[in-house]
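Hi R.,

Here's the chain you asked about this morning:
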Amino acid sequence: MIAAFDVDAQRTFTPLCPNELPVAGGADIATELNAQAALADYRIASKDAHSAHAKWVVDAPEKMLQSLPYADADLTWVRHAEPGTEGFELIPGLPDAAEYDFLVYKGVEAAMHPYGACYHDLNNRISTGVIEWLQCRDVDTVLVGGLALDFCVKTTALQLAEAGFRVYLNLAACRAISPQGAEQACNEMQAAGIILVQDAALMSAMLG
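And here is the predicted structure, written out as tokens:
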């Protein structure tokens, strides 16, 4: 069985929400995410769902990426992806949330800011349930895309690979915060055995 995973493909990570965490081209990946979903038996998604009282929030972009003393929130970020705001919503062109087979809401706790969608904490201790859900449905292959490549997508893919899934990363279905971050993320994923694919068409050919 195959699952397609839309990781944090939310407006908060696109120029549609310029005051949050806009990633260049972030709103342009829906077509590729839909194409890879057509290759899968299940379609799942994760969404950042951050509290308005999150302890890691700073009021200006220049204050971001500073270290924090909390065990499960390592860096500061501007406010983003709060439920009820535009940034929380999925990017245009994706299905409604209710149409997915499984949803992960992460980062709900005010003192926690996970990147990967498989665990609520940075130490990979508290499961979100998605790994177990996939295992119960005999999924052995996961097709991954989303935002942003160098943070949440990379971490989710690594967590899935560590759990024993065969993971394909669709580069055309991702955008990164920086070219340097993208390169480092791709190197880490390849070292973990994750298969990097240029687009869903090539992914289809590889899957047979």
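One quick note: The radius of gyration is 16 Å.

Cheers,
M.
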